[in-house]
């Protein structure tokens, strides 16, 4: 399968693949960036006067797409590695955006009540609280704490946007294994095999991937505990959000919950 995607091609050209390269590639299988950005923009409403924080901006989705659509998005992330991907993607998009390197724990001090909308999407990023770069394991208290730090940046009356693995996928007892079709991207041949397993006795979810670029395999593994939807809803309400609801957003691969800060 031949893929034309300047961002991913540039990531592959940049050198040895890392977790950011893998994430960029996985998005390719999960959703169409432009279609999803249109869906998010529809939920956001008119751009004028709206201050948005994407506090897990990662390699740039959906912040860069929203900025291109005229939104004022402040971008933060705790990983320099991911921001290297972000900056390269911003350059490719012709956008002059300076993301801030910032851990979630530092957000309330810097950005308390500073935004009309705070968003954090990417498959339930709270499960990686403090653990994206180093393969650690966040517990439920750490996840709730992280979500509280994001919500603290929403002004009273402002809106919050977060995602979570679809309920049916969290219910699965068997491993989910996928071998994606071989991709031809620029000069590169890419194969990805992924397995997601959930161990119900320990509550630990393991995402293992083998990314093979031009014949060289690279192994990645992220272990995390996970939240059920009802647990996420309780945490969101406990953080001072009202009108917490599952919100359909066209193009989103994960389930979305939104709320309004009281
Ligand atoms: C799965 S990526 C999602 C990126 C992007 N929002 C997207 O949808 O493509 C999760 C991001 O959360 C960031 N992250 C994880 N723990 C963090 C923390 N404690 N503080 C700040 N960012 C963190 C990671 O660096 C990573 O870029």
UniProtKB/TrEMBL annotation:
CDD domains (alphabetical): AdoMet_MTases
Keywords tagged on the record: Methyltransferase, Transferase
Gene3D superfamilies (alphabetical): Vaccinia Virus protein VP39
Biological process, per Gene Ontology: methylation
GO molecular function term, any single one: methyltransferase activity
Domain spans labelled Methyltransferase: 52-122
InterPro entries: Methyltransf_25 (IPR041698), SAM-dependent_MTases_sf (IPR029063)
Protein name (database record): SAM-dependent methyltransferase
């Amino acid at each position: 399968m031949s893929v034309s995607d300047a961002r991913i091609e540039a990531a592959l050209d940049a050198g040895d693949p890392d977790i950011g390269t893998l994430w960029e590639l996985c998005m390719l299988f999960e959703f169409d960036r432009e279609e999803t950005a249109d869906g998010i923009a529809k939920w956001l409403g008119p751009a004028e006067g709206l201050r948005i924080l994407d506090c897990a901006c990662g390699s740039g989705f959906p912040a860069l797409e929203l900025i291109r659509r005229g939104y004022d998005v402040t971008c933060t992330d705790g990983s320099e590695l991911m921001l290297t991907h972000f900056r390269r993607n911003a350059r490719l998009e012709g956008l002059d955006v300076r993301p801030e390197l910032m851990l979630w724990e530092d957000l309330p001090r810097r950005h308390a009540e500073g935004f009309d909308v705070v968003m954090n999407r990417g498959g339930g990023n709270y499960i990686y609280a403090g653990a994206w770069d180093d393969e650690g394991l966040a517990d439920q208290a750490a996840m709730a704490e992280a979500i509280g730090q994001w919500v603290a940046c929403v002004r009273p009356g402002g809106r919050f946007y977060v995602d979570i693995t679809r309920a049916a996928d969290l219910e699965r007892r068997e491993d989910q294994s996928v071998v994606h079709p071989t991709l031809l991207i620029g000069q590169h041949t890419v194969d990805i095999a992924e397995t997601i397993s959930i161990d119900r006795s320990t509550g630990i979810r393991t995402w293992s991937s083998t990314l093979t670029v031009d014949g060289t395999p690279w192994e990645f593994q992220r272990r995390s505990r996970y939240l059920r939807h009802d647990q996420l809803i309780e945490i969101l309400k406990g953080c001072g959000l009202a009108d917490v609801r599952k919100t359909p957003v066209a193009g989103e691969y994960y389930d979305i919950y939104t709320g309004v800060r009281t």
